[in-house]
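Much of our argument rests on the idea that a fold can be written as discrete symbols. In the encoding step, the backbone of a single protein was reduced to a row of integers, each denoting a local shape. We regard such an encoding as a compact summary of how the chain folds. The record that follows shows the chain in one-letter code together with its fold in token form:
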Amino acid sequence: MKILLHDYAGHPFQAELSRKLASRGHTVIHAYFGADLGPKGRMQREAGDPDSLQFEAVDPGTDYSKTNFIKRRAGDLAYGKAVARLIGAEKPEVVISGNTPTEAQQAIVEACRKAPCSFIYWCQDFYSIAASRLLEKRLPGPGHLVGAWYRRLDAQQMRAADHVILITDAFRAQTHAWGIEDHRVSVIANWGAIDEIPVRPKDNDWAREQGLTGKRVALYTGTLAMKHDPGLLVALAEADLAETVVVAAGVGVAALEEAKAKRGLAKLRLLGLQPFERFADVLASADVLLAVIEEEAGEFSVPSKVLSYLCAGRPIVLSAPADNLAARIIVEAGAGRVVEPRDYDGFVSAVRDLLTDPVAAERAGRAGRAYAEANFDLDTVADRFEQVIEKAL
């Protein structure tokens, strides 16, 4: 069949799903926001990929800002219309859409009804709830009204979907509250692109290029957005335990640049995002891998970087609420340490413990990789998606 898989963020693991589905004989258009600054997977057809696979970097044709609410909303609306045009032109039988701003998703839902084609809402997190909590915190009064509007739209979109995919059973409480019947919901946990992220040696080409060989390294990679607290990384750099390497993009990078200049943090290394083909070496250069998420977003947001970290076989320190799905995975797998948001001392202490106890660090890294090998089988995932597509059709 013809499938349009839309992943706004352009995550590596979702690109690999499109490849797998195309290898099974489906025609797959993988669409994503080309101007998004976050980390991307292999977003072009390569040697060995089937002719039935294509990648589309969607361009809304407007300036996009993640810090200016007015510009961001205008960008979301324009982006949704651009994806809607792609749906109208390609005429897929089914659209799977995830990681999408609420108002952009609305245009996608409407385009599917017009086409017509089946629509599957892939709920990576409850974007509207996380956004409304941040808005209510930053804009008391107006933020509450805007947040309520987003939650209403999100609920309507799920009710209109032919099927809903959740990444955890824990999300069912919200779909129940919104009146989504269980028979229209499937749970498919996220996974890391394990075939693309082998366990690599710490002394590798990328580490040598960055002058990191022979040094202790605590590394953060990915997006630093409003839901990520850069103060944790500043506190770690101030503790002078290791080279604090941040391979990132997003609004939080500017805060780190300012802190580095003002406080003279020589061991805070700020690097831009690296090409995906070097991702395994980037992760391998670390003694400890770092992830952070704010309390307001932690209940419904699962940092996908943690799934990549598990593949890399390195211990993880995550700052997140204890009930966050990624936090539960790390604890249950024994893959590292979890501390509460804004616990700066606890965050630094957890990194110190792993840096000074190589046996515990190696054990955590092996446990993380073992979890990935046991849970990140792409053929099994593709089977589940084909079953969901059949239900939606």
